[in-house]
Design a protein that fits this description.
Elements: H1 10-14, E1 16-21, E2 26-31, H2 39-45, E3 47-48, E4 54-55, H3 61-68, H4 72-76
Antiparallel strand pairs: 1-2, 3-4
Length: about 80
């Protein structure tokens, strides 16, 4: 508890995406495709899993963003051009 999962496996790992939102000029990053699952939210913030067991937070998205934040300007530079 309090640390990221040691390994993000299966469907959660395959369903972490990012998308650019041109109207707000922002990027959204996170898990998608979990309409019937609370797993991503419960892992990040803690809560109750589908079996009714209380789960302590194991943040994985926020720490990953903070680790990569210094690299983002270089990674995104020249990636979006007005048509």
């Amino acid at each position: 508890p309090g640390e990221p999962p040691r390994y993000i496996e299966g469907s959660l790992r395959r369903l972490i995406f990012f998308a650019y939102e041109s109207d707000s000029r922002s990027v959204v990053i996170g898990p998608v495709g979990f309409s019937n699952s609370t797993a991503p939210r419960v892992l990040e913030y803690g809560g109750v899993n589908r079996h009714g067991k209380k789960v302590a937070p194991r943040p994985y998205m926020a720490p990953a963003l903070e680790k990569e934040r210094p690299k983002l300007p270089l990674l995104w530079r020249n990636s979006i051009k007005k048509g």
